[in-house]
Amino acid sequence: MRPTPSIVRVIDLETTGQAPPMHAVVEIGWQDVALGSDGRWELQGEGGSILVNPGRPIPPVTMAVHHIRDEDVEGARWWHDVARPVLDPWPRRVALAAHRASFEEQFCTPALTHGNSWICTWKCALRLWPDSPGFSNQMLRYWRKPAGMDHERGLPAHRAFPDAYVTAFHLRDMLNEASVAQLIEWSAAPGLLPRVRYGPDRGREWREIDNEVLHGFLSDRDPDIRFTAETELARRRGGGEIGRASAQELLL
């Protein structure tokens, strides 16, 4: 019997808004990334996208982002008919992935994914490429310039397949730097931010701010900020000095 291939499926959704049940999916896109016989990960297959009838009007504010209109999805299939074949195909993928996967996970519930694990390429980019000037899907695209990407195939932005296609190149390169298990572990935790987001220290690396300021971030409402401050304080309690982490430390 042939071994089950190692494939991660990248997912991207366009929706009527930010969260169910008030909002619903209007388009799902996907692109697979597979482990080759040479031990390297590469994009596999053509990927695709399917329009979905959300069962409600699409607000103009979201229509202005993805340009999918009510008339475009009027005769489309419903989400429960579309989702499972895309999210839980045969053979089973070793994980699903998305950029800021917490958004997709709201709509792609465990019942639809068969409890599949998720990789968040946004959280993993924070760990692997902390020098990036930003961490949006498109910022990483133009900062990193991934090898082999077809520029036109990744357009227009904010449509399900082009965005999944771009994310797949980030994922491919991440998988060639770190294991699936490591990416899933990082994705399950809050984001580890490389730089302070606001205040007098905005833009500075967390290792550059003093302990008193760092303690002030422990009560922040943002879980990523709290987690980053806690992680940096734990590092200092372990004997670390204020200063920039080495590339090796950032991978741990």
What does this protein structure show overall?
By secondary structure, this protein is of the alpha/beta class. The chain has 2 domains: 7-188, Ribonuclease H-like superfamily/Ribonuclease H (Nucleotidyltransferase, domain 5, 2-Layer Sandwich), CATH 3.30.420; 206-250, no CATH class. Helices cover 38% and strands 17% of the residues. The chain is built from 12 helices and 6 strands. The chain has a 6-stranded mixed β-sheet, with helices on both faces. The relative contact order is 0.13. The model has no long low-confidence stretch (mean pLDDT 93).
Features of the shown structure:
six-stranded mixed sheet; RNaseH-like_sf; nuclease; globular; 12 helices; 17% strand; 252 residues; Exonuclease domain-containing protein; alpha/beta; 6 strands
- CATH uppermost class of the largest domain: Alpha Beta
Integer tally of domains: 2
| Class by SSE composition | alpha/beta
**Main β-sheet, spatial strand arrangement:** 4-3-2-1-5-6
Question: Percentage of helical residues?
Answer: 25-40%
What is the CATH architecture term of the largest domain?
A: 2-Layer Sandwich
Summarize the biggest pleated sheet.
Answer: 6 strands, mixed
How far is the first residue's CA from the last residue's CA?
36 Å
Question: Quick one: CATH superfamily of the largest domain?
Answer: Ribonuclease H-like superfamily/Ribonuclease H
Beta content comes to 15-25%
Please tell me what the overall shape is.
globular
Query: Which regions contain 5 or more consecutive residues with pLDDT less than 50?
Result: none
The averaged pLDDT comes out at 93
